[in-house]
Design brief:
Oligomer: single chain
Strand order of the largest sheet: 1-8-3-6
Structural class: mainly beta
Strand content: 35-45%
Radius of gyration: 15 Å
Largest sheet: 4 strands, antiparallel
Shape: globular
Low-confidence stretches: 17-23
Number of strands: 8
Length: 117
């Protein structure tokens, strides 16, 4: 069984940072499931009141191509649990001048072994 993991990530901003001269950033990779389904708890711990955009599709929250139907907005102080199937990836970004901060906890989605009868 895989051990649980916890970490804090800086979430890049998708807008220019100094009068439009700095190029926009790409979304941060929050986590990617490889061989087993995972449960990822994400908490927005930004002190500046930044919303965090989360999506399974990188292009849904990249460089001005925001797609509200394919993304989830996590307000400051809020938490949400996401399930990742093998091969799925979760991305995060924010909009504004300053990056956001998230804390994540990753664990096996089904923490038991299934034995056929």
């Amino acid at each position: 069984m895989q051990d649980s993991q916890m970490k804090t990530l800086n979430v890049p901003t998708l807008s220019a940072t100094d009068s439009g001269t700095t190029p926009a950033a790409n979304p941060a990779l929050v986590y990617q499931a490889t061989k087993i389904p995972l449960r990822v708890v994400v908490r927005n711990i930004s002190s500046l009141g930044r919303n965090v955009l989360l999506s399974y599709a990188k292009n849904a929250i990249s460089n001005g191509e925001l797609n509200p139907q394919a993304s989830f907005t996590l307000p400051p102080g809020a938490s949400e649990t996401f399930a990742l199937l093998p091969g799925e990836t979760l991305y995060a970004a924010t909009v504004g001048l300053d990056p956001a901060l998230i804390s994540i906890a990753v664990s096996v989605a089904f923490p038991f072994e299934v034995h056929p009868a």
